[in-house]
Amino acid sequence: MSWQTYVDDHLMCEIDGQRLTAAAILGHDGSVWAVSASFPQFKPEEITAIMTDFVDPGSLAPTGLFLGGTKYMVIQGEPGVVIRGKKGSGGITVKKTNLALIIGIYDEPMTGGQCNMVVERLGDYLWDQGF
């Protein structure tokens, strides 16, 4: 299965009539493995900051998580494993696997819990597969 299929069929799938607004699978170095058409253009330093927070949990809390120039307030996550952010009625979930970052961006009416479930389920599967 191609990486794009994981984005199209698993991350951008419909859950209870809702779906993510954007999703991506990136390498730890920020290389693009697959993205949805709506995924924002991001800067390398934004991915570097996310990776730093996985190594040094809490480093993003004072400044916020930035992706594509959009600032998300960092909320509860799992240190070293999942970073969650909130902006207005939407937010972001970033799950780290052995080799990749699984990123989901949502807006209402989708909930943070639904986004977390979609992103983290795929992340757990890829982790178990060695990715």
TrEMBL record:
User: GO terms for CC?
Assistant: cell cortex; cytoskeleton
Q: Mainly localized where?
A: cytoplasm
Q: Which UniProt keywords apply?
A: Actin-binding, Cytoplasm, Cytoskeleton
Q: Name one GO molecular function term.
A: actin monomer binding
- Record's subcellular location: Cytoplasm, Cytoskeleton
What Pfam families does the record point to? Answer: Profilin
Does the record bear Repressor in its keywords? no
UniProt similarity note: Belongs to the profilin family.
Its annotated function is as follows: Binds to actin and affects the structure of the cytoskeleton. At high concentrations, profilin prevents the polymerization of actin, whereas it enhances it at low concentrations.
- Describe the protein's quaternary organization and the partners it interacts with: Occurs in many kinds of cells as a complex with monomeric actin in a 1:1 ratio.
Q: What is this protein called?
A: Profilin
